C-alpha cells in the first residue's frame, strides 16, 4: 500500500506556529514528511511555481486566495468558495475542502440529531461558511450567523430559541484560556433552550464555553475530532487511498490521550511530588510541582507567604499559577494539598487534565513545613477536604507501597479514564 513515501506534502499559511497536522498524518499511517511553510500573501504564486509539492493543505488566510491559482476544484469547494486541500495533477493544481468532511464527522460523532433545530454560528470568517453549509445539509433550520462585532447580549437575545451553538471564533483558544464567546455560565438566560454546543477550538480540549455547556447538560464536542477527520480526508486525496473510517476515532483518541495532563491531587505529604516525578519519567513528560512554581512566582517560600499574607494571599497566587501551568498539555503536575478548597481551581485544571486523587494512610502524612497541617491535625484536614477531593477527582490511586509501585498505580488510574470523559 502506497502511504505516500517519497511524496512532498505540507501546510501553507501566513503564520503557522505549532501545528498538530504532522503528528496526525503520521498517526494515520502516512509515510510522507509533512512540512510547514509560512508564505507571504504576495508570494503564493511564486511558492506554487518553485516548490515541487505533490499536495498541501491551506490555512487562514489563504483558503480563498489560493483559488485563482487552481485549474479546478471539487463541487463542495466551489459551492463554499473555500479550499483547504490542494493536490498536483497533470493539468495543474486542483482544490478541495476537507473541512466540510471534518465538521460533518464532528457533528455526527456527538450522536446529536440537528434536523429541524435552530443553530447559531459564532463568527463569520474563516471556516464559518463551511460550518453553516454542513449544518444546513444535515437538516438544521434555520442557521444563523453572529459575527464577532455583532456578538452582543441584544443580538443573542433574538435567538433564545436556538438549540445548537457552534463556535468558529478563536475566543477561548490557548493561550487565552478562560475566555468565552458566549456567557453560558454567567448569564443563566443566554440561549436557555441550548442542547448541543460545538467548539472548533481544540486547545484546550474543554474551553470555558464547553465546560459551561456541559454543566447545563448539553451535548458537547471540541474541534480535535474535526481536525483529525479533515486530515484523514486530505491524506486520502494526497495518496489516492481509501482509509478506514475507524481511523478518525482511533487517532482522535490518541491525540487527546497524548496531550491530557496527569494532575495529582491529595493531602499534603501523600507523595504527589515523588510519585509524580516517577510517573512523568515513565511517560516521557515534563514534571511540574505547583508548590515550586508558587515559590518562584512569589519570590519567597510558602511558609513566608502564609506568615505575611495569610491563606487568602497564598490561594490567590496558587490560582494564578494553576491557570498558567494547567493551560499547557502533556504534563504531569503535582498540586498543593489545599488546591481543592477553591472551586475556581477546578476549571483550569480540568480543561486539559485528568485529576487523579492520590490517597495515603493519614498516620503516614508528615506535617513539617506545612502551615495548615501544623494548625490542624491531618485527620481534621482530611475530614474537611475528603469531599472536595472526591468532587475534583476523575480517578483514585492509593499510596500503599513503594514510590515505584505507587507510580504504576497512578498511571493505571490515569489511563483508565476514558477519552471524552467530560464531553
| Assembly classification | single chain
- What is the domain tally? 3
CATH architecture of the largest domain: 3-Layer(aba) Sandwich
Q: Describe the biggest sheet?
A: 6 strands, mixed
CATH class of the largest domain: Alpha Beta
- Could you tell me the number of beta strands? 16
Report the radius of gyration as a whole number of Å: 24 Å
Q: What is the overall shape?
A: globular
- Please, how many helices? 17
Unreliable spans are none
Strand content: 15-25%
The name CATH uses for the topology of the largest domain is Rossmann fold
Structural class assignment:
alpha/beta
Integer average pLDDT? 94
**N- to C-terminal distance:** 36 Å
Helix content: 40-55%
The CATH H-level superfamily of the largest domain is: P-loop containing nucleotide triphosphate hydrolases
Enumerate the strands of the largest sheet in spatial order, edge to edge or round the barrel.
2-1-3-5-6-4
Amino acid at each position: 500500500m502506497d502511504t505516500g513515501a517519497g511524496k512532498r506534502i505540507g501546510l501553507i499559511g501566513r503564520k503557522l506556529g505549532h501545528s498538530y497536522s504532522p503528528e496526525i498524518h503520521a498517526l494515520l499511517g502516512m509515510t510522507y514528511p509533512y512540512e510547514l511553510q509560512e508564505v507571504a500573501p504576495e508570494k503564493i504564486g511564486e511558492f506554487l511555481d518553485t516548490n515541487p509539492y505533490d499536495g498541501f493543505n491551506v490555512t487562514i488566510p489563504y483558503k480563498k486566495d489560493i483559488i485563482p491559482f487552481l485549474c479546478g476544484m471539487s463541487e463542495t469547494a466551489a459551492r463554499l468558495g473555500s479550499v483547504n486541500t490542494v493536490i498536483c495533477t497533470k493539468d495543474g493544481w486542483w482544490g478541495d475542502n476537507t473541512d466540510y468532511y471534518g465538521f460533518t464527522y464532528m457533528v455526527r460523532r456527538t450522536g446529536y440529531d440537528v434536523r429541524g433545530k435552530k443553530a447559531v454560528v459564532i463568527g463569520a470568517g474563516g471556516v464559518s461558511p463551511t460550518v453553516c453549509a454542513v449544518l444546513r445539509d444535515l437538516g438544521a433550520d434555520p442557521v444563523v450567523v453572529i459575527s464577532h462585532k455583532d456578538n452582543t447580549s441584544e443580538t443573542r437575545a433574538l435567538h433564545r430559541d436556538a438549540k445548537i451553538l457552534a463556535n468558529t471564533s478563536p475566543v477561548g483558544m490557548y493561550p487565552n484560556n478562560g475566555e468565552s464567546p458566549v456567557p453560558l455560565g454567567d448569564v443563566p438566560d443566554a440561549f436557555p433552550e441550548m442542547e448541543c454546543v460545538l467548539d472548533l477550538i481544540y486547545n484546550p480540549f474543554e474551553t470555558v464555553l464547553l465546560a459551561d455547556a456541559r454543566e447545563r447538560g448539553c451535548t458537547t464536542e471540541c474541534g480535535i475530532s474535526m481536525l483529525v477527520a479533515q486530515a484523514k480526508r486530505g491524506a486520502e486525496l494526497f495518496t489516492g487511498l481509501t482509509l478506514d473510517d475507524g481511523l478518525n476515532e482511533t487517532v482522535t483518541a490518541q491525540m487527546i490521550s497524548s496531550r491530557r495532563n496527569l494532575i495529582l491531587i491529595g493531602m499534603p505529604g501523600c507523595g504527589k511530588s515523588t510519585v509524580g516525578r516517577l510517573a512523568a519519567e515513565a511517560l516521557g513528560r515534563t514534571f511540574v510541582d505547583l508548590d515550586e512554581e508558587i515559590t518562584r512566582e512569589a519570590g519567597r517560600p510558602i511558609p513566608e507567604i502564609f506568615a505575611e499574607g495569610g491563606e487568602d494571599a497564598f490561594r490567590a497566587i496558587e490560582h494564578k499559577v494553576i491557570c498558567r501551568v494547567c493551560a499547557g498539555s502533556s504534563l504531569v503536575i503535582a498540586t498543593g494539598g489545599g488546591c481543592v478548597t477553591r472551586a475556581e481551581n477546578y476549571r483550569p485544571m480540568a480543561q486539559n487534565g485528568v485529576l487523579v486523587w492520590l490517597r495515603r494512610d493519614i498516620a503516614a502524612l508528615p506535617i513539617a513545613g506545612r502551615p495548615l497541617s501544623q494548625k490542624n491535625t491531618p485527620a481534621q484536614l482530611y475530614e474537611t477536604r475528603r469531599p472536595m477531593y472526591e468532587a475534583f477527582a476523575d480517578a483514585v490511586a492509593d499510596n500503599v507501597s513503594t514510590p515505584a509501585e505507587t507510580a504504576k498505580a497512578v498511571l493505571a488510574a490515569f489511563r483508565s479514564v476514558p477519552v471524552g470523559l467530560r464531553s
